[in-house]
Queue: 2 jobs
Job 1
Amino acid sequence: MTNHWVDIKNADVVLVMGGNPAEAHPCGFKWVVEAKIKNKARLVVVDPRFNRTASVADVYTPIRSGTDIAFTGGVINYLLSKDKIQHEYVRSFTNAPFLVKEGYRFEDGLFSGYDAGKRTYDRSTWAYELDKDGHARVDMTMQDPRCVLQLLKKHYSRYTPEKVSEITGVAKEKFLQICEIIASTSAPDRTMTHLYALGWTQHTVGSQNIRSMAMIQLLLGNMGMPGGGVNALRGHSNVQGYTDLGLLWHLLPGYLGVPLEKDETLAKYMEARTPKPLRPGQMNYWGNFPKFMVSLLKAWYGPAATKENDFAYALLPKADRAYDMVSIGELMAQGKMSGLICQGHNPLASLPDKTKTSAALSKLKWLVSIDPLATETSVFWQNHGEYNDVDPSKIQTEVFRLPAVTFAEDEGSFTNSGRTLQWHYPATEPPGEAKSDSEIMAQLYRRVRALYEKEGGAVPEPILQLHWPYRNAGDPSVQEIAKEYNGYALADVVDPKDHTKVLAKAGEQLATFAHLRDDGSTAAGCWIYTGAFTEKGNMTARRDPSDPSGLGATLNWGFAWPVNRRVLYNRASADPSGKPWGPKHRYVSWNGKAWAGPDVPDFAPTSAPQEGVSPFIMQPEGVGRLFALDKMAEGPFPEHYEPVESPVDKNALHATKSNPVARIYKDDKERLGTSAEFPYVGTTYRLTEHYHYWTKNVPLLATLQPQLFVEIGEGLAAKKGIKNGDRVEVRSKRGKITAVAMVTKRIQTLKVAGKEVDTVGIPLHYGFVSVAKKGHLTNTLPPVVGDANAQTPEYKAFLVDVQKISGPGQV
Amino acid sequence: MQFTRRQFVKIAGGGLAGTSLAALGFSPERALAEVRQFKLAHTTETRNTCPYCSVACGVILYTLGDRAKNARSEVIHIEGDPDNPVNRGTLCPKGASLLDFVRSPNRVLFPEYRAPGASEFKRVSWDWAFDRMARLMKDDRDKNFVAKNASGTTVNRWATVGLLGGCACSNEVGYLTNKVARAMGMTAVENQARI
């Protein structure tokens, strides 16, 4: 989230599109209700299904799953053509006035530079026009036909209300009504918050869905404002933390990219990731990249990392290709992986195309499951009848199932969706022989290390030289680990402007990442978490909920990254001269000497407005990007592409039907279905009473929602002769599941380009290791194809067929 | 049979007949209701965080047992933490049934091992499991480690073993896991964030 849970209450409009917080995040949703009651906020819900969030909305419309960019593109067109944008914000705080390089084009669904053979773009024309100093050229009148604002107008002029309705199935009047509500927040004293979750990420255009909303929020002046922002409601208790800490193939802790083969030396690696300012005088905070990286290398390799040896950079693995989850599945299927360690992870259930995943796991030599619960993955080799029809004698995988602790027996911090780290304490001992995950990882490391010490082997240095300063090497304490990711001074850190002033003495915990250095005098395992465990102690364990401003910025509760800031980009909550945009949303502003307010300012604390530093300090040009430059795989402006499995024959906007750069492996391409064979849209989701594949093992919740069902609209049910409670079979090209039919008004038949489109709603949650009734894994159905940027699979829009098997109560 | 508290004391004090009546279940309702108030009186409160979604509701765990070294404690009740600024004491159906998660009958209690082709797990010791896994990891790393690529660049990569991190583990686990995985040379390191 750019903002945070409690901040939702400050909104005047709450737009929920791509999520269902009333059911998936019930206790966070209370802040939407608070906004409605205390702030008279209007709640707008756009979702394929009339869910519980929709049930309390002021305006709801169904939408065909996978057509969100047609909708948001239509909103952008509405805002620009009706002149409903926050003018001063757009001119001063976004790249609307920036000139785009000659050669940039968009024709027939494709941007300039497309290579059809490789299905990738040469992105060199997606850039600014630069002057002789390397700064971007701008036209502050925003009239130049090559400025971003004019290109934006042209790009989205195709997204007329009629076109939006034709593609999405949203009634034109409803669409215009929603546009009007959204546009009302272009007034400087009104804000809209946008809430989304996996309903937006799990598409082949997932990242561009979210970008399109970031653009709308910039046009409306809603970024950096209390009650504004683009807010990802994340799914797991610590998925934010695991992302921050870089447990993704392409990241190291703190969003430092992993070294690739082309990054031969530390200098080369850092040069590619350390931008230069694109406008005069900008903060360009990523210019500090070397400080973050060298401090990480010092935390990991300790004394073995020296200036002379490039801080042991050579020890880090260099990736030769993508190793995202979907690629790991593919590599396993090809027999190229020997082992897989699953720490609280159930890939048989969570990867798309269970049949493929099952075959892939069977090719492993060994598999480790570290989990408090028995998972489907840990017994993928067991026969469970129709739910897992395998022959154990033919599966040669060695499997280790290791008992781990739950939260109740564990100590440490979780990072919530609002980026706040909160410490928790163990309430009891682990049951049986269960161990903490950190002890298990430490033991694996120590034992592999001992083998290398004894026997030697392939390049033992990265293992032997790893810095392991923990008192109990076999079970490091969580406090020691937290202190390490926070960071500490190895030598006195002095103020660069006044060398007599010591900011941190050698051996002390660092208070802020502003104290990190690139000369090896500081160590920090995750620079964005610096400030979490300082000389003052464990800041994540703070429990003072006081909120002096009443705006929800509880600065003494836990610790939010970065530097305890609760609303990102909050400098933009004041106008260019530093005054609040309006009396209602006073937040961070210039008091004549410094930036001040109820939050930690997202800016240099004493940089006066007249110095002309722009508010988006992480960008080398200092402003929010309406034009994404070369950062997105599909192009600098989001464009509507149909899901890879779509119920319609063509893209109503141009000849490029689906995402031209979405990655799909050959074997997966052969497992795609057509709308002739599978005419309905399948979409998956969560229920309030369940959580992924864990809670089917929780007796009370298994009682509340005991078995797999699918939601079928009344129109489709009538067509197929299905009655409420019947047993049905849902098939895709990949496989089939059986479930109880719930015939409902909640899913409607949509009119799309003169054709009727029906949707089948399929909850997750069930499986064959279960206290609840055994069931099929829902992810038997979706295809293995992902978003071109994040490789998130398209679970939300794929093709299925449905038919009745038997009546109620029969099997 | 309805009694006031005063009448009950009279009856109970009246000898065998009275106490027998009470023992048979004819005890006054109000007296029983008062006893229920003390359910959590002898428990220890622990602040924790709900492990499900990212709202990260504050929860209080009530544990029976005084944390004596040789006594096993047990969590007997879990409820929302009213001090937490986000959930303010509320919990959803999942959070409200966390006790059933902690006590789930499907919790794994001992290390187990399934041999190639076997149709069942067998119980093993932690030591045996760790040693066997370390051996498999080292052998595979020795076999498949890529020190340099075709153009001679040092790449120090072990790409044949993957690690999928768990998003309900704490930051400290995540940090240590990543540090260990990258030190071994792993490139296939992921978590649930992408799916």
Job 2
Amino acid sequence: MIEIKDIAKTYRKNGGREVKVLQGVSLKIEKGEYVAIMAPSGMGKSTLMNVIGCLDRPTTGEYRLDGVEVEKMDDDSLSEVRNKKIGFVFQSFHLLPRTTALENVQLPLIYSFAERDMAALATAALEEVGLGDRMNHLSSELSGGQQQRVAIARALVNDPSILLADEPTGNLDTAASAEVMEIFNKLHKAGRTIIMVTHSEEIAQQAGRIVRMRDGKIVSDERRAQ
Amino acid sequence: MKPAKTIKLALRAMGMNKMRTFLMMLGIIIGITTLTVIVSVGKGASAKVMKTVKNFGTNSVMVFAGGGKVLGPPDEKTNTLTLEDAQAIMQEVHGIRSMDTALLRLGRTVKYEDNNTNTVIYGGTTNYGDAWEWSTESGDYFTEEDMAGMARVAVVGKTVVSELYGNTDPIGTNIKIENVNFRVVGVLAPRGTSPMGMDMDSRIVIPYTTASHRVFNTTYISLIRMAAADPNQVERIEREVATVLRERHHIQSGFPDDFRVRGASSVSKMAKGMAGTLNLFLGLVSLISLVVGGIVVMNIMLISVGERVKEIGLRRAVGAKKTDVRNQFLIESSLITVIGGLIGVLTGIDLAVLLPILSNGKMAAIPSWEPFVLGFVFSALVGVIAGLHPAKKAAELDPVDALKG
């Protein structure tokens, strides 16, 4: 479902120096896979993540998502793809302040035009991450682990094809990390496609496939028997 | 995103920072309040002008003896206007339906029994009622015989009646004007205030011949009052009357008139002039407030966009299009200014109601629906213009950079 062919991404830094963040990355990810992308900081894993998530465009190369050539899409179509097919989970949660868990989870729904019961969908998503009893709490009233679970519910609420998680446990203590990883495992078992960027070996080991990157290139791609 | 959702979102953002929202509204509130006051005062003033002109007579032209820019009737030393002037006007200027010539004296003592008061003595002709379009409330005007016989008969105004008689019927009583006895034959219908601000009901009308020979001993006249057959001809008559008089008085071109011609149009011009100055000042205040208010809205919106970069990044990540983000900020800024505008209109209407009371009726203001439309249009316009730049800036943020903050 994800087909990346020879993707390169070049940034021009202040002063005109070009930085090649991705240098010819090719990657195929099938539906239902649980992939961890590992790399030391600044080695292009976040950029790859943003390209897969249609937040960023590659400088060169091809990207097909569900058979559609994403690199040719305009900005509005990319927004629509993000809305319908991608669910983001960020290291720093990115919840709206002074807003309840329920409203945070509804956020993607207000940008899709379909007539649906937003509250019911958001409630179901929150129940899926075990926060059915915290729906009307403000984000500031929740613990870090709970906030990240709200963020996961938000990523799930529009029933996307792919969950993209960027260091989802980076800001969490061990217990909360375990909780969050438990949810990802559960979602994987339920058939979700999950792509997770991490630099923690321990976290990566829970995925079925580990892609290692260095200097903007893939250096290894191993599948583990589960 | 649906408009209703966007408005809800904007209301929420406004509620989160109430002080800031209020500051953004302040300039708009002041601007729209003054705008509302301008419209109301303007309406009040034009109603007042209309009333003044109507009171003066929409088809009336008056000539006063003496030049200059003085308002109202001349003093008694001004001897520039004669009955012959009036006759010449009547012969040479067409379209005059009726003419009254008068000898006028201000502030004369009149007595009835033990009461006395000061009033205007108007020595006019039997054309008085027609030329002034002024009827008697009771009794009648004097007759041609009274004129011919220099009869000592008087028609009194309502103010004179109330000051001298109280509730007594004045008809048939004797009244002393400058120590000459007059018999009251009629009471004038009430007329109100003249365009020059004089109480028109404070006057006594007596035959010109009597005034000229028995009371004031002069043959000069103070004013000519004309009624045009057609109100549209008033301006032409004003011009032609001036030409006739300049010719008769041998006034060389470049020298000022020794008379003043006043028609309905010059009266309305005069009345409008007074209201115009105030409106110009208030208009400037309104304009400046709206511009300053708009700049404040724009700056605070820019700050707000800066503070909400992460939120914008997140919204873009979950599927908001550029237009969604742009609309969110545009609607937020317009909603703030429109609500500010509504507060402004309501404040302005309150002021419009209070103004005549506070100024003891000197200032007229009429509340109306127009400020609501104007206020809405102007405040929405300011909101959209002020929000355009911040909204565009928010929409053009790169989602990846925005997420990083």
